[in-house]
Write a structure and sequence with these properties.
Oligomer: heterodimer
CATH topology of the largest domain in chain B: FAD/NAD(P)-binding domain
Strand content of chain A: 5-15%
Helix content of chain A: 25-40%
Number of strands of chain B: 19
Number of domains of chain B: 2
Structural class of chain A: alpha/beta
Number of domains of chain A: 3
Strand content of chain B: 25-35%
Order of helices and strands of chain B: EHEHEEHEEEEEEHEHEHEEEEEEHEH
Strand order of the largest sheet of chain A: 5-7-6-8-9
CATH topology of the largest domain in chain A: Rossmann fold
Number of helices of chain B: 8
Largest interface: A-B, 20 and 21 residues
CATH architecture of the largest domain in chain A: 3-Layer(aba) Sandwich
CATH architecture of the largest domain in chain B: 3-Layer(bba) Sandwich
Shape of chain B: elongated
Number of helices of chain A: 18
């Protein structure tokens, strides 16, 4: 463009390498060549139903096309708050030619379900995304780190790639006897399905030990599968590995068939979701409880030796709350602990924010670092810290490690992240949570 | 001479009013300018009616058969009201049938003279309706659908890419039509559905400012068009239609993407709105009835009396009052009949 009557030489419009630092999280991410994208034509030259048709051909894929653009999903989409996303935008992008099967957009959704909660047209991204991901898995267009998790799950029966024989290792530090069904197969009331992160992650193991002590003190008749346990694989399913989920289910069903029990209790809302909603579709019906649902009605029997003396805020797990409607049980537990004051975050219950771990997000930290301005867990921790609470209470095994990392990275080290079972255990035994 | 209840206009609203009055025992005269009854749906060759996609000829045929079965109903076709005086009875109307003039004494008059489709050749609406054969209007497409064959007028080929442009002639201060024409979103969605049923391989697009699907039309027409028939709705209106390589390039802004759009089409359908028909304007002037600034007849006691006008004994129904769908026509027709029959009894 002529300036002052003289034609100007073209300026630099593109940086081959560019790193941008988030003013919020301090994280750096790569936007190399980003400005060149602005030089592409902005003109939309076609709209097509064909992208929708390809997705609608998949089981559960038909509703993406139903979007009429109201935008209600966007403000409640946890991913949109830290990037450019939201189901409405995905709908328009597909309508204007995005190949979702090969797009990075495919992997951002955590299947938290908040969009579906508000969608007037019932566009069901919790079905759409896994259906498309399943095809992408087959075609091999899947982030490497997620692929590795799928391979670990396939080989070892757990997402952490741990030796399955080490599953019951956590019981050694519990201080109470934990029966393993393989060595004592007599009938049991509660089958405690420990799931991956309570079995193997150090902070999860502490929560598992606490829960075992609580059940013992309540005289609950319980046992675990030990080395015979495999993950229920619900997050693998939602990340697109339906085949792996189904294979795991067959093995799980075979193991469960060996023992007599009344109900399955699991700390993992994802596993709980599988047992409650998905297994019955395949004809496998069990009485499944989230551990908060087992504990809530029994709490008055606990003889608390001490008082927690803490303000607490609670993060509703997506797959306990929104997906399965349980908001009260964990709150009953928190409020029954002596010396606890519960402070709710602005986003709680039905509108709870997502920790970022669902739908495969647990295993996409590297991928997401390049796509999001900060982790969802970091944003959530900020919100928790803003309540002024001492403790961020969680009821999902994914969350302790996610939120502890986020508390550190956001400078909120003063916020303690604790499982509700740990809180009950500490008060029950009269210990000091600060020590 | 017997005083009668006179309905001017034999379309959906006029026939509905006449039937209701006849059912109440009133002597009714229907005056229709065309040689046939049925109004706009028949005159403009509508294929089907919104929202149920029933054949316009069948629906109107049933209504006409019901009307003409009454012994107390006279139908004067090819007839126009050319004069009115109040020297005798409430109204004495001069009716011209062919070249013959007659007088009809009316206890009350129901104006059912309807609307006319907006002429898409006016400023700010320069979509090339008169330049490009493949730019057509809703009623042109209706006529094609009625024949069961949708083609590109330019070459007779089957169109594979068809778009509708909403709000042509409506909601525009510069044109002077600030109102929404109420039915075009539904009609366009209905026609889009019919195109998909006729040409399954076609891609059909609707460019809109707001989709205005009031009440049940939302899930009677709009949702099925999108969900079952895969009509692509794009928020953002077309501003220009340009010829390109034997096709039409429609240009506009996709407002939710915030980006310009330039898309090639085989056929462009303008969703033209409603304007007061010449008959509505003429009858209002002849009977001294107050019109609004758009030329439609003003309902004097709106909102809860939708049919009384500024002149006692004169009522207006259907699209003579402003943009109306068929339910509006039937409802206002029935209400006007009740009031007009009341007038007849008051005189007796």
């Amino acid at each position: 463009m002529p300036v002052g009557g003289n034609k100007q030489a073209a300026g630099v419009t593109e940086l081959a390498e560019a790193i941008v630092t988030s003013p919020l999280s301090g994280r750096e991410w790569d936007v190399s060549g980003g400005s060149s994208r602005m030089l592409h034509s902005r003109v939309l030259t076609d709209y097509s139903a064909s992208g929708f048709a390809k997705i609608a051909a998949l089981e559960g894929g038909n509703s993406l096309e139903y979007c009429f653009g109201c935008g209600k999903c966007v403000p409640v989409c946890p991913v949109d708050l830290v990037s450019e996303y939201g189901p409405r935008k995905i709908h328009r992008a597909v309508q204007t030619g995005l190949d979702l099967f090969k797009s990075d957009e495919l992997w951002k959704c955590t299947t938290c379900g908040n969009c579906l909660r508000v969608c007037p047209k019932e566009v069901n991204m919790i079905e759409v995304m896994p259906a498309v991901r399943e095809v992408a898995m087959v075609e091999g267009t899947i982030p490497d780190e997620l692929q590795q998790i799928m391979e670990k799950t396939f080989r070892y029966g757990n997402a952490l790639g741990e030796n399955p024989r080490r599953r019951p290792a956590w019981t050694k530090g519990a201080g109470v006897d934990v029966r393993v069904l393989a060595s004592d197969p007599s009938p049991v009331d509660v089958l405690f399905y420990v799931e991956d992160y309570w079995s193997f992650h150090p902070r999860g193991q502490q929560a598992a030990q606490a829960f075992a002590r609580i059940m013992t003190s309540l005289n609950v008749d319980f046992a675990i599968l030990g080395a015979e346990e495999k993950t229920l694989g619900d997050s693998q399913r939602l990340a697109g590995e339906k085949g792996l989920f189904e294979a795991l289910m067959e093995e799980v069903i075979d193991v469960l068939a060996k023992y007599q029990f009344n109900r399955i209790v699991t700390p993992d809302p994802h596993g709980f979701n599988a047992l409650k909603k998905v297994y019955p579709k395949y004809g496998h019906t069990f009485e499944a409880l989230h551990y908060s649902q087992l504990l809530a009605p029994l709490l008055e029997q606990i003889d608390f030796q001490g008082s927690l003396e803490a303000t607490v805020t609670f993060h509703d797990p997506c797959y306990l709350g929104r997906h399965n409607g349980e908001y009260e049980a964990p709150r009953k537990i928190i409020e029954a602990i002596p010396g606890v004051k519960l402070l709710e975050m602005g986003r709680c219950r039905e509108n709870s924010y997502c920790c970022g771990g669902g739908g495969g997000g647990m295993w996409l930290d590297g991928f997401n670092a390049n796509h999001l301005s900060e982790r969802l867990s970091e944003r959530r921790v900020r919100e928790a810290a803003a309540t002024g609470a001492d403790i961020l209470a969680v009821a999902c095994p994914y969350e302790v490690s996610r939120f502890e990392d986020a508390a550190k990275s956001t400078g909120n080290e003063g916020l303690r992240v604790m499982d509700i079972a740990e809180m009950v255990d500490i008060a029950m035994r009269g210990e000091d949570w600060r020590s | 001479m017997e005083e009668r209840l006179v309905v001017i206009g034999g379309g959906p609203a006029g026939i509905s009013a006449a039937i209701a009055a006849a059912e109440l025992g009133a002597p009714v005269t229907v005056i229709e300018k065309n040689a046939y009854l049925g109004g706009r749906p028949i005159e403009e060759n509508y294929a089907s009616l919104t929202p149920y996609l029933e054949s316009a000829e069948e629906v109107m045929g049933r209504l006409i058969a019901q009307l003409t079965s009454f012994e107390n109903v006279d139908v004067l076709t090819s007839s126009k009201v050319v004069g009115a005086s109040r020297d005798h009875a409430p109204f004495e109307l001069d009716v011209l049938t062919g070249s013959a003039t007659s007088k009809v004494e009316a206890a009350s008059v129901i104006i059912a003279t309807g609307f006319t489709h907006f002429d898409p050749g006016r400023e700010t609406q320069l979509y090339g309706y008169y330049e490009f054969p493949d730019v057509i209007a809703l009623q042109d497409l209706e006529a094609m659908l009625k024949e069961g064959k949708v083609t590109r007028p330019s070459n007779g080929e089957t169109p594979q890419r068809i778009c509708f442009v909403q709000c042509v002639g409506s909601r525009d201060r510069q044109i002077g039509n600030e109102y929404c024409s109420k039915v075009c979103c539904g009609v366009a969605s209905k026609e889009a559905t019919e195109i998909k049923l006729l040409i399954p391989s076609a891609e059909v697009f609707i460019f809109y400012i707001d989709m205005r699907m009031y009440g049940y039309w939302e899930n009677q027409i709009y949702w099925p068009a999108q969900e079952k028939h895969h009509v692509q709705y794009v928020k953002g209106i077309i501003t220009e239609v340009l010829p390109k390589d034997g096709k039409l390039l429609v240009r506009g802004e996709d407002t939710t993407m915030g980006r310009p759009m330039e898309v090639l089409m085989d056929l462009v359908v303008l969703s033209v709105g409603m304007e007061a028909s010449p008959g509505t304007r003429q009858m209002a002037a002849l009977l001294g009835v107050k019109q609004n600034k758009y030329g439609f007849i003003e309902a004097a006691n709106s909102p809860l009396d939708t049919v009384s006008t500024s002149v006692p004994g004169v009522y207006a129904v259907g699209a003579a009052l402003g943009p109306s769908d068929l339910e509006d026509c039937a409802s206002s027709g029935g209400l006007a009949a009740a009031k007009a029959v009341r007038d007849l009894h008051a005189l007796a």
